[in-house]
Amino acid sequence: MYRVPFEVADLTYDEALEQLHSALRFGICPMLETVEDMLAELGDPDLRYDCVQIAGTNGKTSTSRFTAAILAGEGLSVALYTSPELVSYTERMEVGGHPVGEAAFAHGIAAASEAGRRVNASRAAAGERPYDVTEFDTLTVAAAVIFAEAGVDVAVLECGMGGRWDATSAMKSIRSVAVTGIGLDHTRILGDTLEAIAGEKAAIIKPGRACVLGVGCATPTSVEDVFLEQCHAAGVTPTLVRALDRVDVAGEMHPGIAREHAGLPQASFGVTKRPHRLGAPLELSVNTPRSLYAELACLKPDYQAANVACAVALAEAHLGRALAQDALFESLVTCPTPGRFQLLRPEPPVLIDACHNPQSVEAFLAAVAAVEPDVARRPLLLCAVLADKDVAGIVRLLAPAFPSVCVTQTASPRALAAHELAGLFRGAGATVTAEYPDVASATSALCGESYVACGSITLAGEVAGLLA
């Protein structure tokens, strides 16, 4: 059993959060050496289990959750690392399908922080510049410790941003990887073209790793070429995820036709039944080189079909064998995806979704249209966005999709002011009925109404926390 090789201070959860928040935010030159040296100082806890790593602009959190659920259904002890949280930081780290407790979280943060202090003390003694340890560095190292102490078999890791320099890429036991797709997001850091962003995410494809490329990697061909060239350079044969019908990937793919690539293994999927109301099941089949998985189901919207197929192919690739049919069905039906087309209150209905860029908004709206095609019959929209996103693109899509709009702003320092967002919606032709200074004011004012809250992950999280 793994143990931290040095004394660690006892911290309360609040003290751990204070220590975590004192770490630098992402904004400096990214590097893996910081996390690599912190893990080495801790005795390499990441070598105590195998890792599965998932990157992508959209869909990576849901794919990570599905993959973890499937592997757990195969009898493995599974950990899951995702970001960001909706309500509590503890949600970022799960063991056995449940968020870790506050005491375990605090212990992990204490261990990671002490490792960072020791590494920087050694660097200072050697005359080297200390590392700028970020919040995400600390969280990732803390997760590595917590998972090792829990004795898990495998950890499913969602990349926080990009792939090449993401802190999760410092884990030395990554055996399998997937990229769900590419969109224009975090352009200041990752690049301002789809091809540049693809290059950053493709860097997780390395020799000896199994690889799955989701539907969002197939178009345009210039993006797919980036991934296939990286696979060729690494000596990796990827499994390509393909939809049998283009309608099943509405909002998931960029314009273009997915190429066949007859020489590469493929996992194809088709939706056999679409949810006709909130809470109704999505049914689909997935056909891989190893097996046909028919009559799968999950209580999710249409757009999750691509993520389910990617997770099935990834779990297969990691295990190197076909999956147990009954276990797979059970794993998918019971897998939660918080903040993704999540019904928080049945009557009057309140729906949240973490869509936060035009591509994810398109997928979300396709799911909304499947449930209620008539815009006039849909509930009102409560929207908040972050100023560093493609705000104009988000507003352009949402404005005509709802009969009326209320705007607010979240507690994030990156939040766009509510009055600015209201002006953009009015400019796009939307009927803006109210502006709220914060999410608490909005949910209080709308307590007796049905509404859809989307536009940023932080909005989904704050609404979920207030209505929990």
Can you give the helix content as a percent range?
A: 25-40%
Cα distance, first to last residue? 36 Å
Major beta sheet summary: 11 strands, mixed
Tell me the overall shape. globular
Structural class: alpha/beta
Q: Concise description?
A:
The chain is an alpha/beta fold and 468 residues long. The protein is 37% helix and 18% strand. It has an 11-stranded mixed β-sheet, sandwiched between helices. A 6-stranded mixed β-sheet has the order 12-13-17-14-15-16, with helices on both faces.
Keywords:
468 residues, 15 helices, alpha/beta, 11-stranded mixed sheet, 6-stranded mixed sheet
Give your account of this protein's structure.
With 468 residues, the chain is of the alpha/beta class. The protein starts with 12 loop residues before the first helix and ends with a helix. α3 (60-73) packs across α9, α3 crosses α10 and α11 runs parallel beside α12 (391-398). The protein is built from 15 helices and 17 strands. It is 37% helix and 18% strand. It is globular and about 65 Å long. α13 (418-427) links the parallel β15 (405-407) and β16. The longest helix is centred in the N-terminal third of the chain and has 24 residues, at 102-125. The protein has helices at 13-21, 33-41, 60-73, 102-125, 135-150, 187-190, 194-202, 221-234, 304-319, 325-334, 358-371, 391-398, 418-427, 439-445, 457-467; strands at residues 50-55, 78-81, 93-95, 98-99, 154-158, 174-181, 210-216, 239-243, 266-273, 282-287, 292-298, 342-346, 349-352, 380-383, 405-407, 432-435, 451-454. The model has no long low-confidence stretch (mean pLDDT 93). It has an eleven-stranded mixed sheet with strand order 4-3-2-5-1-6-7-8-9-10-11, sandwiched between helices. It has a six-stranded mixed sheet with strand order 12-13-17-14-15-16, sandwiched between helices.
